[in-house]
Automatic annotation (TrEMBL):
Cofactor: Zn(2+)
Domain Enoyl reductase (ER) as annotated: residue spans: 12-346
Coiled coil region boundaries: none
MF GO annotations: metal ion binding; oxidoreductase activity
Organism per entry: Prosthecodimorpha hirschii
Annotated InterPro entries: ADH-like_C (IPR013149), ADH-like_N (IPR013154), ER (IPR020843), GroES-like_sf (IPR011032), NAD(P)-bd_dom_sf (IPR036291)
UniProt KW keywords: Metal-binding, Oxidoreductase, Zinc
Protein name: Phosphoesterase
CDD domains the record matches: idonate-5-DH
Keyword hit for Metal-binding: yes
Family annotation (SUPFAM superfamilies): GroES-like, NAD(P)-binding Rossmann-fold domains
Keyword Zinc in annotation: yes
Length: 349
């Protein structure tokens, strides 16, 4: 069966077009997925605006999208547990399974990993903002009938946050601070609450995302649009054991270094600008800060599906708008407006 897919394809900064892509016959070992729902991620927005995110630069037209759920349309593989018509969340990671990092159980650091809708490798691996796309069976995680596909699509960002909380170590009973109140900051807050934190502070420069964090139960809300003196006062009164830097900005990281307690931990989740950035790094030494990166996720993807299915984390409370896939370019513009949007979800029609 040959087919074609209509896909949100990025040609350059702010140049995203719905383009028909021919699909050949399904290759051996592959599963073809019919689009069901997708989340628009911060990295999709970075690609859309700048045709790059961090150090990853778009060199060829790139179909965006890596927070995807859909239905199995065709199978040309040994795929136990999968059948045509099955509803699945699609894990955007395709790791090799045999490099040193894979063998030590850190597949997100695989030397040969491909990730959907990412320019991290060349040729780029195309993404899932497409009416049809292909995946390997291991990427397809069945979704229980009662879980809407738009919720299943958000397993990916939740997995990112579960991984970040795991990277922080045991945070039960600890006080945390999060820099950046977008979807990843908010889901990290929810994941950290599940892990038993004592209290939380959410830091941002925009009022609407901060108000959202207050509704989700952040204990302290700190607007640093006019500087971080208030944050420093708060940290002096009630110190932060763990900081999650989600904003991906030099200012956010500088504030994290300045306000986490001596001997505290910083988890870097946000994608910082590529190249070198100025930060007061000497304090990492003087305060014995554990500064840890957190990149994507590994087995947390399956945990995220289970948590969404059993109601442990209500990801749909983050969804502020739904738009059909065919309107992806406008949906990205809407997602970029932080005064109106937390999570924008694309649907099949
Ligand atoms: Zn994402
Ligand atoms: Zn590997």
């Amino acid at each position: 069966m040959t087919a074609s897919a209509l896909a949100a394809t990025l040609f350059g900064p702010e140049d995203l077009r719905m383009i028909e892509h021919p699909l050949g016959p399904l290759a051996p070992g592959m599963v073809r997925i019919r689009f069901g729902a997708a989340g628009i991620c911060g990295s999709d927005m970075h690609y859309f605006r700048h045709a790059r995110t961090g150090d990853f630069v778009v060199k060829d037209p790139l179909i965006l999208g890596h927070e995807i759920a859909g239905e199995v349309a065709e199978i040309n593989a040994d795929a136990p547990g999968l059948k045509v018509g099955q509803r699945v969340a699609v894990n955007p990671s395709r790791w090799c399974g045999h490099c040193a990092r894979c063998r030590e159980g850190r597949a997100n650091l695989c030397e040969n990993i491909y990730f959907m809708g990412s320019a991290s490798k060349y040729p780029h691996m195309q993404g899932g903002f497409a009416t049809l796309f292909d995946a390997v069976p291991a990427q397809c995680v069945p979704v229980p009938d009662h879980v809407p596909l738009k919720a299943a699509a958000l397993a990916e960002p939740l997995a990112v946050c579960l991984h970040a909380v795991r990277r922080a170590g045991d945070i039960a009973g600890k006080r945390i601070v999060l820099f950046g109140s977008g979807p990843i900051g908010l889901l990290t807050l929810l994941a950290a609450k599940r892990a038993g934190i004592a209290s939380s502070a959410m830091v941002d420069i925009a009022p609407a995302p901060l108000a959202f964090a207050a509704r989700l139960g952040a204990d302290d809300i700190v607007d640093v649009s006019g500087g971080d003196d208030g944050l420093k006062d708060l940290a002096a009164r009630n110190p932060f054991d763990v900081a999650f830097e989600v904003s991906g900005t030099a200012a956010g990281l500088a504030s994290a270094i300045a306000t986490v307690r001596r001997g505290g931990t910083i988890v870097q989740i946000g994608n910082l600008p590529g190249g070198s950035i100025p930060v007061p790094a000497n304090a990492i030494m003087a305060k014995e800060i554990d500064f840890r990166g957190s990149f994507r996720f590994d087995r947390e993807f399956d945990e995220a599906i289970a948590l969404i299915a059993d109601g442990g984390v209500d990801v749909l409370q983050l969804v502020t708008a739904e738009r059909p896939l065919a309107e992806a370019p406008d949906a990205l513009r809407l997602a970029l407006d932080r005064s109106r949007s937390v999570k924008v979800v694309l649907t099949a029609n």
